[in-house]
Design a protein that fits this description.
The complex is a heterotrimer of chains A (315), B (318) and C (512). Helix content of chain B is 68%, strand content 0%. Chain B has 318 residues and is mostly helical. Chain C is 32% helix and 22% strand. In chain C, helix 9 runs antiparallel to helix 11, helix 13 packs antiparallel against helix 14 and helix 14 packs antiparallel against helix 15. The chains are: A mainly alpha (315), B mainly alpha (318), C alpha+beta (512). Chains A and C meet through helix 2, helix 3, helix 5, helix 7 and helix 8 of A and helix 1, helix 6 and helix 12 of C.
Chain lengths: 315, 318, 512
């Protein structure tokens, strides 16, 4: 096990270095730079060149790369190019918001999706197609609905028509009530898609288990259906479900970018989109690397948990 | 919605493990055991089997007519997709304009059909490109192993470190917007997933008895690959490919929504929805109807993939 | 694996709590002070007058700083600000008498003539790398006979000099000690003498201004103004309709304006704020022929297009200059919609079958409705207009380099000379300046320079009229429309007077 973890860790390191290098150089392939993005409509020619120099965009590429690697080693994220603010500070204020959105979504998803999926599987197993088809069908439609579309409809309905939730405003982390009020809608939008995905996976996993011999044995022992379902079937289906919870983090991170855009939330997704639009290399490369790190680390953890849970996988 | 693991989750019910498993994993091994019987089945018999499947038939009954309509578009009695009409602005659905008109008096139905053409092109191009690269690199990686495998998988891991939509956003901001860049960006995010899938399938096959048998008769590697390895994986990859097509259509829509996809006036389902969203209150049809069409296509593609899978693996038909 | 059930219960409890709290929470309570919430539409980029960009940032700076002069919100006329009065005999030596007892923000003491010298020298210092240094290039020396007098000597006479020292960009007076204290964070620590003090900023969400109690015209009526960053137009409209904000800085979607007008919001508006021009680049061969350029003008019916696409935001115009400017004249060549004449001109120029031309635009904007109509109209005379869509920074780079066939420009300015000089003078030809068509007509250049030096207002006006006539005959820049800037707000928000730079002086704004 230890050897396995070490090997994975080495892989993690190589991947991270690869990500850093890839991001650094591809960002610089993008035509247009931070200076012209910042100046917008009003500047040109000489004035722009002066601005570019001032922003340190005229140094040779390899020098910039070396400087960047060195600063990463000491965890110095530097300042944004366009606004001269500390990237670390910006990320520090944005990260909790995005994490809060992501984690609440996961909680709601797990709570709603697993019973729904199990129920659907049970119905399917019993040959009662009606309810199973309803759950599966709804899940499929919601799963495939573009989240920006769901987001918009929710915004119109819950914000404008019902006036339950605000469409704009601060996300002041020191005031938990206002934060929840403000973040409820984006979490809901994300959760709808996630619940749909996870319910479908739970259904498949449980359904597979329900056909196994030991379930038949358990039933023949006279245990109640519910007990069989939740104690045995769901327990044995937990492996793929845990894996999927880990994996769904990727789609959650995608999703936060979209909802933060629609609902105007100052999380790291907004930082990223703004960074790309203003060609702020310092900002974007740190964020993308950060996203990659979260993603890779979670995959790493999932992989290890998977091995730990699955008796069939040997080392 | 579209996500990193959609390929994995639909090809094998319990999802791919995030990092490569040396044995190809138990699920994959089970799955590829099933088509072993279909090994020698000629292509058309496979097609007939798919057509006999209910889900696949439903999918084709939706996809084929839509595609035929888009092909017939120039001959349909509709206003041309780019034609503006100042006398018929924001008209609700009617006999002349079945899907209504937008703010510039353009026919939403003909624009939707034109958009379907573009979206399907994006979807199938991405699926095809990912399939080709996935088969070649995944087979090489899985079959030859060692240094080649490690090199390919390291690169794959680097690409897989990015959530797919973010990777596509990054790529589009480099190569620019438009049809070809969008296809490239989405395909590049999908290829590593196909490579990984193909690799695990090949790994599972490599230890198979009949491959060993072929080896003992000293068959050439090329013969081995083309007659025994790739034909046995292609079906599972097709399942993944139809999901990838649906996925690509939705990613294109998301990119368009962020202003990074296919640009108006060239319609794609994504930018039609985006254009219409500002009028959601005054004229719901402008973006809702293309939205329904995109959903129908995505669901059909998923049905198609389910259908193919059920044909391959009767166990999963429940 | 009994973890599953226990985990379930606690997760269930947590999520019920999340949803429950969220619904139960009332909207944030109102503060005691008079407050105003304004939508801000992009990321703030800082407020250092020497390095400030984009109108939304400039609007914040406009309320923090003061200039020697400023603009009347309604008429656009130059009025006194930090200078109480001024005089000049020859447009070359300018003497300003400063206001006494003006207090800096945040306890930085009293404003004196030394601050003016420091400000202008800072702009002109190459180390500051200010893009606005050129605006003061004509300054020979700045002297301070006493703390309340500034004398500025120019290298050559400039009748428009009062514009250069107005409360805008290089004209905004800064405090030496405050600049030095801020170090490399000058742009986030603006200290001025204006009606509002920057109190707090989170570049990701909001900017908070507080009334400057010692402002020389007295404290502003509103105590706290919060600028909430809302980029999406849909969201900002919903936020206004929901009462989450009081005022929208620049709404620019026709459909939203229609909705808001119907629902009774106050549509604060300035008309004829700036003219949008189409740049016809003669580097693309067909456009080198004046007949082709005139044919294009005859081929497109901008009046009708603007009426159809954005009736409340723009209208067709024939001139570069806006009607409220003193040098405006109606006596200019005009090109009424006449496709037959356009075809004839094209045939004469040797393009009876037309040609294909590429129009540069950003992919963020895509193809605007206006451009779709242009494509339609041009196709009627045989010209195929294709769109070349690139991302915004690339667009800026290409347009600045003059690397395009068709492009558009819009330059808001109060000083007509700014518009004419930037577009028409060869010294500003791409890639150095905004003259993307690299227009160079010696006769016009001489007139432009002459008009700057001319002291007699009547002669000056005649010279500018001649400039406009020549430029619109040569037609490298085709006027498409004059646009209006609209800030929809609640009825109770009064005094939102948008000036001709598209800015609002919040000193005049009050909540009833």
């Amino acid at each position: 096990m230890l050897a396995f973890v070490l090997k994975k860790f080495a892989q993690l390191f190589v991947t991270t270095l690869g990500v850093v290098t890839l991001v650094f150089f591809t960002l610089r392939l993008i035509p247009g730079d931070a200076a012209s993005a910042m100046a917008g409509d009003s500047l040109s020619g000489e004035a722009l060149e002066r601005l570019r120099e001032q922003m340190g965009l005229t140094q040779p590429l390899m020098t910039q790369y070396a400087t960047y690697l060195k600063s990463l080693l000491v965890l110095d994220f530097g300042q944004t190019i366009t606004t001269g603010l500390s990237v670390y500070d910006l990320m520090k204020s944005a990260l909790p918001i995005t994490l809060l959105i992501a984690l609440s979504t996961i909680v709601i998803t797990v709570v709603a999706a697993i019973p729904l999926g199990t129920l659907a599987a049970f119905m399917a197993h019993k040959g009662r197609k009606g309810l199973d088809n309803l759950i599966t069908g709804t899940a499929m439609v919601l799963d495939l609905m573009p989240s920006f579309w769901t987001g918009l409809v929710f915004l119109l309905f819950f914000s404008l028509t019902l006036r339950w939730f605000p469409a704009s405003g601060d996300v002041d982390m020191s005031d938990p009530f206002s934060v929840l009020h403000r973040l409820a809608l984006p979490v809901l939008v994300l959760a709808v898609t996630q619940i749909a995905t996870m319910a479908r996976i739970t259904r498949t996993a449980v359904l597979e288990v329900l056909g196994e011999d030991y379930i038949r044995t358990a039933r023949s022992l006279g245990w109640s259906e519910l007990r069989v379902l939740f104690r045995h079937a769901l327990k044995n289906a937990a492996l793929p479900i845990v894996t999927v919870i880990g994996l769904s983090f990727g789609s959650l991170l995608n999703g936060t970018v979209i909802v933060e855009f629609i609902f105007n939330i100052p999380g790291i997704g907004s930082l990223l989109v703004n960074g790309i639009n203003s060609r702020d290399y310092q900002m974007v490369q740190n964020l993308i690397i950060f996203y990659a790190l979260i993603f890779v680390t979670i995959n790493f953890a999932t992989d290890i948990i998977y091995r730990k849970l699955d008796p069939r996988v040997t080392f | 919605m579209t996500d990193a693991m959609s390929l994995g989750r639909s090809t094998s019910g319990e999802a791919d493990a995030p990092l490569p498993r040396p044995t190809g994993g138990p699920a994959i091994a089970q799955r590829s055991a099933a088509p072993a019987a279909a090994r020698s089945v000629p292509a058309f018999r496979g097609l007939r089997a798919v057509l006999a499947n209910r889900k696949a038939r439903i999918a084709l009954m939706i996809l084929v007519p839509i595609r035929v309509l888009t092909a017939l578009l120039p001959w349909l009695p509709l206003q041309a997709p780019l034609q503006t009409n100042l006398r018929a602005m924001m008209k609700p659905p009617s006999f002349t304009f079945p899907f209504g008109t937008d703010r510039m008096g353009r026919d939403v139905l003909s624009r939707t059909l034109e958009g379907v053409k573009v979206s399907l092109f994006v979807g199938f191009s991405v699926a095809f490109i990912s399939l080709v690269f996935g088969i070649v690199l995944g087979t090489v990686s899985g079959f030859f192993g060692k240094v080649v495998d490690r090199a390919i998988m390291t690169v794959v891991d680097i690409f897989l470190a990015f959530p797919s939509l973010l990777l596509a956003i990054g790529l589009v901001s480099i190569v620019g917007t438009g049809l070809v860049p969008v296809i490239m960006a989405i395909a590049l995010a999908d290829i590593p997933r196909f490579i990984r899938l193909q690799r695990s399938l090949v790994l599972g096959l490599r230890s198979r008895a009949y491959i060993d048998a072929a080896r003992t008769v000293r068959a050439s590697q090329w013969w081995l690959l083309s007659r025994h390895v790739v034909p046995n994986t292609i079906a599972s990859l097709l399942v993944a490919a139809s999901i990838a097509a649906a996925n690509a259509i939705l990613v294109e829509a998301s990119l368009s929504f962020l202003g990074l996809g296919i640009m108006p006036p060239e319609p794609s389902l994504g930018n039609l929805i985006r254009d219409g969203q500002t009028y959601l209150e005054q004229a719901w049809w402008i973006s809702t109807l293309p939205g329904v069409v995109i959903l129908a296509i995505a669901i059909s593609l998923h049905f198609l993939s389910d259908g193919i899978r059920e044909v391959l693996d009767p166990r999963s038909r429940k | 694996m009994s973890f599953a059930r226990r985990q379930f219960l606690s997760l269930l409890a947590a999520s019920v709590a999340v949803v429950g709290f969220a619904v139960a929470t009332p909207a944030p309570s109102q503060a005691q002070d008079k407050t105003l919430k304004v939508r801000f539409y992009d990321d703030p980029a800082g407020f250092d007058p020497a390095n400030i960009f984009r109108i939304e940032n400039e609007n914040i700076a406009f309320n923090i700083f003061s200039g020697l002069t400023t603009y009347d919100s309604k008429t656009g006329k130059i009025i006194p600000d930090l200078a109480e009065s001024w005089d000049t005999d020859d447009n070359k030596t300018w003497k300003f008498n400063l206001r006494k007892g003006v207090k800096w923000h945040k306890g930085y003491g009293e404003f004196t003539s030394a601050d003016v010298v420091y400000t202008f020298n800072r702009i002109r210092d190459p180390k500051t790398a200010s893009p606005y240094a050129a605006e003061l290039a004509n300054v020979a020396k700045v002297e301070t006979p006493d703390p309340y007098t500034v004398v500025i000597e120019l290298k050559s006479p400039d009748g428009n000099f009062l514009h250069q020292v107005a409360n805008y960009h290089q004209g905004q007076i800064v405090n030496r000690k405050a600049i030095e204290d801020a170090g490399d964070k000058v742009r986030w620590n603006p200290v001025g003498t204006g009606p509002y003090v920057l109190d707090f900023i989170d570049v990701n969400s909001r900017i908070v201004l507080k009334s400057h109690k010692d402002y020389f015209r007295g404290p502003a009526p509103i105590d706290t103004i919060t600028f909430q960053i809302i980029k999406d137009e849909n969201t900002s409209t919903i936020a206004l309709r929901n009462g989450e904000i009081d005022l929208v800085m620049r709404a620019n979607r026709e459909e939203h304006l229609e909705t808001l007008r119907k629902e009774g919001f106050r549509m604060n508006k300035v008309e004829n704020y700036a003219v949008a021009l189409k740049v016809l680049n003669p580097a693309f061969k067909p456009l080198a022929d004046v007949r082709v350029r005139q044919a294009i003008a005859h081929a497109i019916d901008y009046d009708t297009i603007n009426q159809a696409t954005a009736p409340s935001m723009q209208k067709g115009t024939a001139s570069f200059i806006l009607p409220w400017m003193d040098v405006y004249t109606d006596d200019i060549p005009k090109y009424p919609f006449d496709p037959a004449k356009a075809k004839k001109l094209l045939a004469e120029a040797g393009y009876p079958k037309g040609f294909t031309v590429k129009h540069l635009n950003t992919s963020a904007q895509g193809v605007t409705e206006l451009q779709q109509f242009e494509i339609d109209y041009l196709s009627q005379v045989g010209i195929t207009m294709k769109m070349e869509l690139v991302d915004t920074p690339t667009f800026n780079q290409k347009r600045n380099a003059g690397d395009f066939e068709f492009a558009t420009r819009l330059l808001p300015a109060v000083n007509p000379d700014t518009i004419l000089f930037n577009y028409l003078h060869p010294a500003n030809a791409s890639p150095k300046g905004l003259n993307g068509a690299r227009y160079d007509n010696p006769k016009l250049t001489a007139l432009l320079e002459g008009a700057r030096a001319e002291v007699d207002p009547k002669k000056r006006k005649a010279m500018y009229a001649e400039v406009q006539k020549i430029a619109l005959t040569d037609l490298y820049y085709l006027p498409m429309y004059a646009n209006h800037v609209i800030w929809p707000g609640k009825q109770k928000v009064a005094g939102v007077n948008i000036n001709y730079l598209g800015q609002v002086n919040f000193f005049e704004v009050d909540v009833k």
